Amino acid sequence: MTVLRGWVCIWAIATNTVRESVRSKLLYGLLFFAVLLIGGGAVIANLSYVENDRILQDVGMGSVRLFGVAIAILVGINLIHREVDRRTVYTILSKPLSRAEFLVGKFLGLTLTIWLQMGIMGLAFVAVSIMTGAPLGASHLAFFVLTGCELALVVAIATLFSAFTTPVLATFFTTGVWVVGHASRELRDLGASADSPALEWTTWLIHRVLPDLESFNLASEAAHLLPVTASDWLLPMLYGAGYLTLVLFAAVALFERRDLR
Amino acid sequence: MSRREVVRIDDVTKDVRPSFGVRRKRVLHGISFSVREGEIFGFVGPNGAGKTTTLKILVGLIRATSGRAQVLGHDVGETAFRRHVGFLPENPYFYDYLTGRETVDFYAKLCGMSRARRSARGDELLAQVGLADAADARVRTYSKGMQQRLGIAQALVHDPDVVFLDEPMSGLDPIGRKDVRDLILRLRDQGKTVFMNTHILHDVELVCDRVAIIVGGRIRYEGAIQDFIEAGERQTDVLVAGMPAHAGPALEERFAAQLCGVGDRIEVRVPEKHVDGALALLLEGGAQVVSVSPHRVSLERIFLNAVEESRR
Question: In chain A, which among 191-250 make CB contacts under 8 A with chain B?
Answer without folding.
Answer: none
